[in-house]
Specification:
9 strands; 3-stranded antiparallel sheet; 301 residues; alpha/beta; binds adenosine monophosphate; single chain; disordered C terminus
Length: 301
Amino acid sequence: MKKVFRDPAGLRQRLDAGRAAGKTVGFVPTMGALHAGHLSLIRAAAAENDLTVVSIFVNPKQFGPEEDFEAYPRDWERDVELAEGAGADLIYMPSAEAMYPPGFATTVEVEGLTDVLCGAPTSRGAAHFRGVTTVVCKLLNAAGPDRAYFGQKDAQQVAVIKRMVRDLDLPVEIRVMPTVREPDGLAMSSRNGYLSAEERRLAVAISKALRGAEDSLLADADIEAALAAARSVLTDAGIEPEYLEARDPETLAPVTELGERPVLIAVAAPVGPARLIDNIVFEPIAAAQQKSPAMQGGSPR
Ligand code: AMP
């Protein structure tokens, strides 16, 4: 049976048939160049749904004019094979013309959450997230999934997509999967392939910096000190972050004092030709339970 679909109508027709037979649909949007991070999302979708759809589309609307749209790695045959190996039943690979036909004029924008961190004018800018929300909204409309899977690696994207789904009453459950890392801690990314051996060695400082922030928060619950600890790890590796900030993972409001809410520590940094991002979410309540297991009734580490 046909597995690869190139336009929304064909995909929808095939999935309507599955839905009519009572099957649930899981959906994993990607830009291809699949790695173990993507495959973890596909495996989760396959485990939780009857039909798993993976989209592969390098979305021109989310790249700025100075960014790496042309250079972005593309290997469709390998991606289809990997996606199927991880449990994808159907692949949606629309052409740019099918996605954005002549006269295309509509944009989906989530305000407020998209002009900070990666959306700040000094970073990728809010246009990046307009591109993301517009394409994800279209992809969700084409696939009509019960559940859609996103990686925590793109923490701001998760916050923005969840808000869009809530605001627009989109009938889909957003599932967020943990960041998959290389053995040394570097978050997997299609852009890691841009790094030379030396840059790859330095890049590990990004995850190390986040671990440093986490250790600092565990020790004295001070956001400023945690950010300073992370920054010094980056500086030692000669990395100047584009941003390194503490924010609420849901609203993305800045956080200056640790309370009971989880705190997102997010970093973006250029390493050689690559712009890399990573984050952790620190959970004060879970951390307090780990620290004093006897008092809190948790189990010791
Ligand atoms: P991309 O192809 O970069 O647009 O990513 C597609 C999906 O894979 C997004 O939901 C990402 O957050 C997710 N993803 C990318 N890298 C990782 C990773 N290292 N671990 C988990 N998910 C990831």
